[in-house]
Amino acid sequence: MPSTPLPDSTPLPSSAPPASVLDLAPVVPVVVLDDVALAVPLARALVAGGLPAIEVTLRTPAAPEVIRAIAAEVPQAVVGAGTVLTPAQVTQCVSAGARFLVSPGWTDTLLTAMTESGVPFLPGVSTASEVVALLERGVREMKFFPAQAAGGTAYLKSLAAPLPQARFCPTGGIGPDTAPDYLTLPNVGCVGGSWMVPADALAARDWARIERLAREAAALRRASR
């Protein structure tokens, strides 16, 4: 995956993949939705708060249609698919409009499918050996998962010197209190989390609250660098 950051002043057309998911914003919201009707207003609130990259996880049957709705109606959003596990899901999500892919782990079969998809992807890793294996295959941007359980900031810090080529989006157990610690690390481009999309705010359709939480998350890089 190329790692050239996107100019903040250049809006992307809805069909264009991002240059690097890790450079779009300090936080990538991890979204789980059962109701497609919530997709567009949620995406608009997150984008308005400064978080354009949105990972829609394939944990509900509605996920592909959620991706399709955001891709069609919120062009300022960079919508991606998370929890991608199979080549069939890669094809389905890219067809729906996903502009990046995220997996909790990887196999050669899944990696080949993601590579051939034509969009950026973040395969999941939790060990140094997995990182080295991906670097051998030319992949330099990865998801570190499950971040807190797999060693957190201490583990990522220990990888920075021997494996400086690798850049990470840590996800799993990260919240507003721990995200700044990750964002200070030189090998972390962004973090993934769901704290700016609380279930009660979704249920209440409180888009103003979600936008405020997104704005606070978007400011974390400035606060921690």
Task: Describe how the helices and strands are arranged.
Elements: E1 27-31, H1 39-48, E2 53-57, H2 63-73, E3 78-82, H3 87-96, E4 101-102, H4 108-116, E5 121-122, E6 124-125, H5 128-136, E7 141-144, H6 152-160, E8 167-170, H7 179-183, E9 191-193, H8 199-203, H9 207-218, H10 220-224
Parallel strand pairs: 1-2, 1-9, 2-3, 4-5, 6-7, 7-8
Helix pairs in contact: 1-9, 2-3
Polypeptide structure, described:
- With 225 residues, the chain is α/β, with parallel strands linked by helices.
- The protein contains 10 helices and 9 strands.
- Strands 3-2-1-9 form a 4-stranded parallel β-sheet.
- Helix 2 links the parallel strand 2 (53-57) and strand 3.
- Helix 1 (39-48) crosses helix 9 (207-218).
- The two termini are 24 Å apart.
- The model is unreliable at 1-14 (pLDDT under 50).
